[in-house]
Amino acid sequence: MDRRSFFKKTSLIGLGVLTSHFTVWSKSIFSWDNPIHNIPEQKDIDKQWLASLHQRGEKIAYRKSKNELRYIGMPVGGLHTGTVYIGGDGRLWLWQIFNTAYDGEREGIEPKNVQWNNGKELATVRPRDGAAYIEPAIADNLRSIEQGFAISVAVGGKQVVKELRENHWDEIVFEPTYPTCRVTYSSANFPVEVVLTAYSPFIPLDQDNSSLPLTTLHLELRNKINTPVEVSLTGWMENGVFKGRKDLNAVCKISRLLDKAGVKVLNYSCEQIPDSALQAGDYGTMAFTCLDPQAWVHTKLEHWPVTPHSLQSDHNDSVVDFADLQVGAYTVKRVIKPTETSRISYAISWHFNNPHPKLKAHLKDAQNGYWYGAKFNDASAVIDYYLAHRQKLDGETLAWQQTWNDSTLPHWFMDRTFVNIGTLATANTMRFASGRFWGWEGIGACAGTCTHVWQYGQSMGRIFPDIERNLREVTDLGVGFQPETGAIIFRAEYEKRPAIDGQAGVILRFYRDHQMSTDDTFLKRNWPKLKQAIQFVLDQDKNGDGMTDTPMENTLDAVWEGEIGWIVGLCLAAIQAAALMAEEVGDKKFQQICMNYVRKGTENMDKYLFNGEYYIHRPDTIQGRKKLGSYNTCHIDQVYGQAWCFQVDMPRINDREKTLSALKALWKYNFAMDVGPYIKTHLGGRPYALAGEGGMVMNTNPKNEEKAYGDNTTWQLGYFHECMSGFEHQVAAHMMAEGMIDESLVMTRVIHDRYHAAKRNPFNEIECSDHYARAMASYGTFINACGFSYHGPKGQIGFAPKIGSSDFKAPFTTAMGWGTYIQKQQMQGKRVCQLTLNYGALELKEFHLGDAEELSLDSKQITVLQNDKQIALHKVKRQGERLVINFKDKVGLEKDDTLTIRWL
Q1: How far are the Cα atoms of 435, 447, 480, 536 from residue 492, in angstroms, in the given order?
Q2: Mean pLDDT of 601-611
Q3: Cystine design at 434: which of 205, 357, 365, 652 (Cβ 3.0–4.6 Å)?
């Protein structure tokens, strides 16, 4: 089954049935089968609120006192190692690490159906269709493994024990800065304040060290009073091996104490295992440790609630019956001086190397388990690796967290545009022992790293470009490639057809992934197959007018006839990227073919598919409007190809004025600060935005045409009436690039507000199941807010900030390094630009700067320094709207180096 099953199994899309049950309302307000367009043109946005969206603002903080903790679930495991959440009160939950997620069996983070009043009736909504949006998962309901901390302090002659959980403290504050979070616990009558920082190693450009099945928990205990305080802290963790099985009475769960780098590690495993259980998803190991060598170890914790001050140490193996709860613990005792802080760290790891049996049956790469399963023998080996490399793993993770958050851009904006990269640290993605990367669309739903969904994401290609390059070579031009035609099967082993938008998206991602490389090796190695894939797109233009018109699958799960604005534009962007890649590999003949096609197509798209206000779908000359299509309606992706141009620094494919008109039409006709009236009258969509929430609807009929979507509307029409955040993010990114800053910020903010912790999990943007891959499009809005461009093989980097350009600071990533960019306008014609590298290396030949009309081209007026060394210039020129500085020699930056460019 795929996401279309939702519409087939509910009555939401039975338009004929609805027509028979309802008549037109008085005064023809609407009818159920043909509702009028009712999104207000005037958005009535509060000016003060709008102004606040531009401001840096306060750090995001969710509070117990505001009832904002219960839905929080931030992924704190490594990439592709399952889902482990940290909750709002600092306790771990969900534990989706046992290989249970699979299409049609167990989808999403909570496999339950919920009821939703769609405006006509109570509809059943499944996990893949937004159940977690209607009724978000609550941490306390999905705490499948016993884990936590307790602190004991003498207060007024009595020993007071508080667990790190919501009901034990006056206030708890959860501060997210993905990939880390900070949880602060305080009570008026308790002498110690506790701060918990949690994360798994997360280092951009280093996917191996970011893919550890590991969570680290770092506690700070601060004495608030003016006398010393004796503190006992206990952290505990259950043996979760075979957690999901109840039929293995013969199994004995083992807690064995190991010595790793001077630290005692509890290794959790089993013995007496039947052969039939060796392939179970929850067969494996877990490990738990405290990084304080003086910590007391308890191999089996038996008394609840935990009383740290009364626990004694034991150093024995513990063999218990399978039915017993086995929980190990570590206790640390400290005396903390007045106003001082004591720090204690813990780590938890897991190793469950049996992918779902149906996955192994379908994918050859899954048969030998996961990458982490091949790298480590068991969970204790993961702990051992962490201990041996802790300084690097912790240091570089925190360096990235500080780099990302040290910005002049709004705190909320930095959070929302980055947080969806956490999808990679959930059960939505896998990295097999063969090295192959693979993913669902959303957890356990819609297989095959679907090309027409994953192509929207922009964060993975910028943060972990190796993963994208693996996807290009192993899947798109590997198992999914058809050498006879050049077609790319859009779900690889799970399909037999290509999707035209997915095919174009692969080409565009190839160009981005080439730009995020150090040289042209990746591009040249893949050019023969890639050229075939490009030719396949060219071949889909039956009438030779530069506009794709071959009916083919697209991301809305339909085969549309005719020339469709958004598909035509996406293909033109792909062919333009192809021309640029052909130029780089020296294939001049093919480059010219592509350029000629783009020239013809862009002219015809603007001439025939622009209706004077926005881009449309021109019907097939023979089929007409018999089949489903967007036709004269206003479609969210209508200028998606042009949006891609900004992500990879390409020339325009659509006229700027027409593009702006199209974006303004989307704002006018599709965006509402409250989508409630629209979804109540336009039935069929899934619940990804509800009454009282803002959003951009996928497709609207502002002209109120009858049969606006064709004569034979099918179940896919339901998509048109939804607010899917991945599509919304790409529009917001495009608006940012085109200078519609306010609209871009509002679009991004209403998504952010839909996922506020008071309402649902801020870390889980939902479409077809949880942690939906398309939502990683959010990073594109950040890219365009910075006006960032980069081409590693050419040694080019550039910035054109859209928000606060006179005093701007933001992070950047390149092929080998990442760091911080600062831009300050001192006065007219006087500017300072500075790149500081915080990790890795960076080689540059050119620096590009936008919004620089007033800056001098006279090299004598420009000083360039690498640290304190002056850099010679070769040429300074204007290239379109940007200023380009060519260095005489290649500039090589290393960690902590700074490149400063100053106009005197």
Answers
A1: 16, 9, 4, 17
A2: 98
A3: 365
How many other CB atoms are found less than 10 A from the CB of residue 626? 13
Mean of per-residue pLDDT scores for the chain: 93
Mean pLDDT of 63-70: 98
> Helix/strand/coil (H, E, C) string of 247-269?
CCCCCEEEEEEEEECCEEEEEEE
3-state secondary structure 24-89: CCHHHCCCCCCCCCCCCCCCCCCHHHHHHHHCCCCCCCEEHHHCCCCCCCEECCCCCCCEEEECCC
Please report the domains of the chain, with CATH numbers, ordered by start residue: 5-25+33-39+407-785 (1.50.10.10), 74-91+143-396 (2.70.98), 787-903 (2.60.40)
pLDDT in tens, 372-392: 999 999 999 999 999 999 999
CB 663 within 8 A of CB 731: yes
Residue 859 C-alpha from the chain's centroid? 42
CA angle 577, 784, 663 (to 5 degrees): 85
CA dist., res. 33 & res. 12, Å (int): 11
CA distances from 581 to 165, 522, 651, 739, 898 (A): 55, 11, 14, 28, 31
In the DSSP assignment, the letter for residue 432 is B
Helix (H, G, I), strand (E, B) or coil at 741: helix
- What is the predicted pLDDT for the residue at 7? 42
Q: ∠757-762-765 over CA atoms, to 5°?
A: 135
Residue keyed to tokens 């009438």: 543
Residue 547's closest CA among 560, 566, 532?
A: 566
Helix axes 640-647, 725-737, angle to 10 degrees: 60
Q: What is the DSSP string of 826-847?
A: EETTEEEEEEEEEEEEEEEEEE
pLDDT tens-digit map of 723-742: 999 999 999 999 999 999 99
Mean pLDDT of 414-432: 98
Provide the terminal-to-terminal Cα distance of the chain, rounded to the nearest Å: 64
Which long-range contacts (C-beta less than 8 Å, at least 24 apart) are formed by 18-27? Answer: 18/120, 18/683
Widest distance between CA atoms in the chain? 89
- The pLDDT value recorded for residue 15 is 32
In tens, the pLDDT along 847-891 reads: 999 999 999 999 999 999 999 999 999 999 999 889 999 999 999
pLDDT above 80 (res 249): no
What band does 140 get if pLDDT is binned at 50, 70 and 90? very high
CA-CA distance, 878 to 324, in Å (whole number)?
Answer: 73
Q: Where is pLDDT greater, at 259 or 694?
A: 694
Alpha-carbon span 513 to 105, nearest angstrom: 34
Helix 778-786 vs helix 725-737: angle between axes, to the nearest 10 degrees?
Answer: 10
pLDDT the model gives residue 133: 97
The pair of structure tokens assigned to 300 is 């089996």
Amino acid occupying residue 809: K
Q: Is the distance from CB of 545 to CB of 604 less than 8 angstroms?
A: yes
Distance CA 821, CA 838 (A): 11
Alpha-carbon distances, residue 284 vs 273, 280, 606 (angstroms): 11, 9, 58
The residue written with tokens 């890795």 in the block is 840
Give Rg (Cα) of the chain: 28
Q: Given this model, what pLDDT does residue 271 score? A: 82
Does residue 179 have a cis peptide bond before it, meaning omega lies within 30 degrees of 0? Answer: yes
pLDDT class of 23 with cuts at 50, 70, 90: very low
